[in-house]
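fyi for ur records
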Amino acid sequence: MTTDTPVPDSEDDEDAPLTLGTLRAALAKFDGLPDDAPVIIQKDTVGERFSPALGAEEGMYLEGRHGAEVYPTPEQIAESDDYTEEDEAPEGAVRAIVLWPVS
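which gave:
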């Protein structure tokens, strides 16, 4: 299968994470697709595992020594009785878009 890979934000760093700005530019080329075209997430770096996206939401992202974590935003915490102060993102977490896979 041949795919076009979005261009990273920096040509100096081909492993740069995808940003919202780069994603917006990449999505522009799909304007001709129907609204019911599925969004598929590649789940590994070699292209052997895929999953439809179940949804997307904003979250707080923090890369750590033992992997990455996603936390609710301050607004999500304030709007929900399900979260407590223990759910707050640690210092250094950044706002991110989180795509949830079906499986």
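The chain has two domains: 1-37, 53-101. thats all i got for now
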